[in-house]
Design brief:
344 residues; alpha/beta; 6-stranded mixed beta sheet; 15 helices; 6 strands; 47% helix
């Protein structure tokens, strides 16, 4: 009986020791792909809060799914930083504000990068359930820390000296999982009159502006590192996303966002939506919005240039250039080409 008691006490002490060690060895040691995160039992959105607290970085990439293909290594080289991605698929502006604020509380940041996706501002209601306790600074994510995979990794690291490779470039990246090009677009759009798309009546510009002001803008203004650089950019959605019937309202909302962001000190705003060599090259897209990773690399390279840098004096120039590109584009010819490809 005494041996059994000693045995179970020893097991309990070892388990407690491993669990304690796991609190300091985070799941960031085992990530690499979205699949690894999900296999570890960690919800993707929860993982942002965990990563923010337990990894070292001095630059952060926020934004929607179009920013998930950024390579941290390219951002590191371009800006002399150590970056981490905190991007969201289908996220609302509320979610982005939560994550932006929390990440800024954890580390002094030299650089923050974020795309501007109009659909993000459509509602303040999160598209997915958010465990708000994750974003409390005194909260320890015990469930995630003590997952089976994380405990196993703790044992390997402490007793065997084994560490998984941290692949920041591969985190959240989806580029390799999709087909890009006109043949794919043909299957998606051959039955749609791409010249007749309109702005949804439910998207009122006043509401979009209010959502921006109530959530994300306060977070940007109270950043923890006053001399940090902030970069926002309008992503180069394909020409199929911008049709003449919806153009006026899109341009009005774009002007509103420009005015709000240009008023913030230390913020650089880039507009890639009239970059014809990109947005009219349908071979780079898997739908009307999502582009391949080569475009993300191109965006990083353009941050070093002023070609697409929006200033108060150039705001109207960018909007007019975008408007002219859309109005002069031959949507009928593209529709005919896609229809022909779809039936081959």
């Amino acid at each position: 009986m005494e041996y059994k008691k000693t045995f179970w006490i020893t097991i309990a002490l070892l388990a407690a020791a491993i669990a304690s060690i796991a609190l300091f060895i985070h799941a960031a040691d085992i990530y690499g792909t979205r699949e690894n995160i999900l296999l570890a039992g960690i919800p993707e959105r929860s993982y942002h809060a965990i990563t923010a607290r337990n990894t070292q970085y001095d630059a952060a990439v926020f934004g929607s799914s179009v920013s998930e293909n950024f390579k941290c290594s390219e951002i590191d080289r371009a800006f002399d930083v150590h970056s981490m991605k905190f991007t969201l698929q289908g996220g609302s502006v509320t979610e982005r504000a939560y994550i932006w604020n929390y990440v800024n509380q954890q580390q002094p940041l030299k650089l923050m990068i974020s795309d501007i996706a109009e659909q993000t501002f459509a509602t303040t209601t999160p598209n997915f359930r958010i465990d708000q306790s994750l974003y409390e600074t005194n909260h320890i994510q015990l469930r995630e820390y003590l997952s089976a995979d994380n405990l196993k990794n703790a044992i390997y690291k402490v007793f065997l000296g084994v560490r998984s490779k941290t692949d920041r470039d591969g985190l959240y990246t989806w580029h390799q999982n999709f087909e890009f090009g006109k043949k794919r677009l043909a299957r998606l759009f051959y039955h749609v009159d791409i010249s007749r798309t309109t702005w949804p009546e439910s998207l009122r510009i006043e509401d979009l502006q209010a959502n921006l002001r109530q959530t994300l803008l306060p977070c940007i203004r109270r950043r923890q590192t006053p001399d940090s650089r902030i970069i926002f950019f309008f992503p180069p959605y394909s020409i199929l996303h911008y049709q003449p019937n919806a153009l006026d309202r899109r341009m009005k909302f774009k002007a509103v966002i420009m005015d709000e962001l240009l008023a913030i000190d230390g913020l650089d705003l880039y507009d890639f939506q009239a970059a014809e060599n990109i947005v009219c090259n349908l071979g780079l897209y898997r739908d009307d919005i999502h582009y391949d990773e080569t475009v993300n690399s191109w965006i990083v390279s353009e941050f070093a240039s002023s070609r697409f840098l929006v200033t108060p004096n150039r705001k109207d120039e960018f909007i007019e250039r975008h408007r002219q590109m859309v109005n002069s584009y031959d949507y009928a010819a593209t529709a005919a080409e896609l229809k022909q490809l779809a039936h081959k």
